Amino acid sequence: MAFWTLISPAWVMFAGAVLLGIFGSNMKVRHMLVLGTPVLVLCHVWMLASKATPSQVIYEVASFELLPVTMHDYTLIFATIFSIAAFAGGLFGLLQSKRIELVSAFIYAGSAIGVTFSGDLISLFIYWELMALGSTLVIMVSNHEHAKAAALRYAYMHLLGGVLLMVGIIAYMTLYDTAAISAFIADTHALFDFHLTDLHTIAMWLMLLGILVNAAAPPFSAWLPDAYPVSSPFGAVFLSAFTTKTAVFVLLTLFAGTQMLVWVGAFMIFYGIIMAILENDMRRILAYSVINQVGFMITGIGIGTELALHGVAAHAFCHIIYKALLFMSAGSVLFMTGKSRCSDLGGLYHSMKLTAVCGIIGALAISAFPLTSGFVSKSLITSAAANQHMQVIWFLLVAASAGVFLHAGIKFPWFVFFQKDSGMRPEEPPLNMRLAMLFFAALCIIPAIPGVAEHTLYAMLPQPEHYEAYTYGHVVTQLQLLLFSGLAFFAMLPLLKRTETISLDVDWMYRKLVPCVVSCLILRPYSMLATPVALVAKRLVGWSQAGIFAMYHPQSVMLRSWSIGLSALWVAVLLCGWLLFHYL
Fold it and tell me: What are the backbone dihedrals phi and psi of residue 191, each rounded to the nearest 5 degrees, phi first?
């Protein structure tokens, strides 16, 4: 058995992170490790996928079998794009990122890849927690003034999700005496029609909630727009690629067909759109757009048909590319200007033409414009909804496509690169950053060339999908939808003009409202009553001490010496009392 079949590709990435931490001060070695490690991981992934019957190494821990190297249906496509994202993210921050940031990012990427190859719940949970640790460090090492506080809030939310997932896994392992990963037969009725003694359903609920925290499903979504925009311009590229998409992979593997997820995803879609439209910070716009796009994927998981699940995997692949490209474009602007608010930007196309073009390509791809990757992936999900006669969901998905074009397809490039002239004329970013943007811009277009997706994107699916995206009706419908969305944007442009404002998310409830309520209803009344209550308590204690002293000091009635006659009298009284009590 070949050695490379015995280890997960995640450990190749971990090895690269360790070597980078030791030898990364040498720039030549750093370049080799940052660019070479993801390529080795990608080769490892495809070598494992090329085996007709991949070897499975089984370890036994506490009577449970662990399978750390297993190929699931969608392992190939997710592990492939995770490796590509690690390469592009490393290239983007090759010269500018701190060494600790690159090491943390590689641990983060390796953990995400490890989840895709985990054949047991124990291994999955270990990689899941390592992923939370790596991503927290990526945020914390940023130079942003709020980075450390945001990283701690990020860690708290992911610890919550990890605890829910862990308790669900323990419940499942207790019930079935196995740690092997298997899909739940979970529909809406199974999740709601249960008793508290139904351990199977409790395990499903806990695991599902833990995964949805990582998927940024509201009301657990505030960590994403809180943390991603305060990371470095390079860390945000890594952050956009792994956490939410790893959660999508686990949902695909465990909860495909869970009907409730259709409506969870639909809510995420419009929640992300509305919040992004209201936002002024360009990277917070893109962060809310992540929630929106993950909503499309979760809706497809809830639909649960083969076409829908293939669409989810394909859309996750394309989403990582165009979302990373958008974060690269925004990161380049931030790196060269030091500004992130749309109200401070504008007119940058004069001097940052390449960055503007790459940003526009990413914006068109996220909007599912024909001849971009989003068009050939998102259409699988909408077609699956139509095939299942889910008219309401189909209409919501189509309407959401227009909303995506409004906030990410037009708003982001318009307010950042066009609109009013801010007077700034920054240069293009350094060469490595430009190469990373060009690489992902090409990947936004190549799979969308008619006839190419069948041999590239769709070919990585478990059963290669024979889907024709470029039908006359589909192309015309999508173009009409996007063009009329653009018309609506410019017609309402005065209402969309950016001002110096901030938007509040649900985290305001537990970060500001709850502490304020506690302060007003508990702490403030307590502080007002503390002095009189303490005075009364002090007096009560003093009286108690005086009474006790009066009763028990050496000359008190209880302790002073009594005459024999008086003692005999008291004994007689007590005996009479006892006889009377006994008689009655």
Answer: -80, -25
CA-closest candidate to residue 73, choices 254, 262, 315, 265: 254
Amino acid at 183: A
pLDDT digits (tens, 9 = 90+) for 361-419: 999 999 888 889 988 888 889 989 988 888 899 999 988 888 888 777 888 888 888 88
pLDDT of 5 > 50? The answer is yes
In the structure encoding, which two tokens stand for residue 278, read together?
């209201």
Q: Residue 227: which of 211, 209, 244, 249 has the closest Cα? A: 244
Q: Please, is 295 exposed, middle or buried when counting C-beta atoms within 10 Å of its C-beta (0-12, 13-18, 19+)?
A: buried
d(CA 128, CA 243): 9
**What whole-number distance in Å separates Cα of residue 329 and Cα of residue 109?**
21
E-assigned strands of 437-583?
A: none
Distance CA 129, CA 111 (A): 8
Tell me the C-alpha to C-alpha distance, in Å, between residue 293 and each of 270, 456, 506, 524.
10, 22, 19, 44
**Cβ atoms of 121 and 172 closer than 8 Å:** yes
- What is the reported pLDDT for 436? 95
**DSSP string covering 85-138, please?**
HHHHHHHHTTTTS-HHHHHHHHHHHHHHHHHHH--BHHHHHHHHHHHHHHHHHH
pTM of the model: 0.85
Pairing, β 64-66 against β 59-61? antiparallel
